[in-house]
Amino acid sequence: MLARQRQELIAQAVEQDGGIRVSELVAELGVSDMTIRRDIETLARKGIVRKVHGGATRADRSTDEPGFSAKSELNQVAKSEIARTTAGLISPGSSVAVSAGTTAYAVAEQLVGIRRLTVVTNSPRVAELLHDPDDNDRVIVLTGGVRTPSDALAGPVANEMLSTVHVDTLILGVHGIDLEAGITTPNLLEAQTNRALIKAAQQVIVVADHSKWGTVGLSTIATLDKVDTLITDADLDERAQRQISKQGVHLVIAAR
Predict the structure, then answer these.
(1) Mapping DSSP to helix (H, G, I), strand (E, B) and coil, where does residue 222 land?
(2) Which of 96, 184, 217, 235 qualifies as a FRET site for 211, CA 20 to 30 Å off?
């Protein structure tokens, strides 16, 4: 089979299923691991697919905004590792803002056992998760706003509310991270509200698995110099790790 034919089959599989693993292509096409990786690199250079650890996914468009349920199925192990590491940095009695997004939600699941927290969030799912009517030990504040496809509350109502609060730490989930574009989202309303969350926090912790690196959404939330700490998983390549650290960001690789 010619390289062009293999690449057409790879592109079709990615478009149909959203992504495919190198190991699956090796078994299906009967060629070496290295051959498949070269094919993926060729398709990635053309912008047809996106190269990720172990395979390829659909090329991101700056306006693509998958829903919460779709995103929750992706990189679940990495998100759990990131969530446990992040929760370990939160002290009892502190105030925490938690953004919308599946990785931030995973962190919220780990916050349940931390006592005397005040949590400000623009995520109805996070608010519902942490609210316990029989426990007065935790205060939950939901911003209000317009609900977006990723299940965030955003827009002027949320922004106005956030302009009046001050929290110790923000846990911010993002759509993408890029050296030049910074942290981004495909949703303009969410970008504004996330900027308001950043302004309200003394410390900004971005939680993002390795697949977010190199993804650029429609709108920049903030440049990397506005991020204090980035918590990611061990599959982020070493070159990216060095680039992030050079920006003055405290990079934390979540424990497995």
Answers:
(1) strand
(2) 96
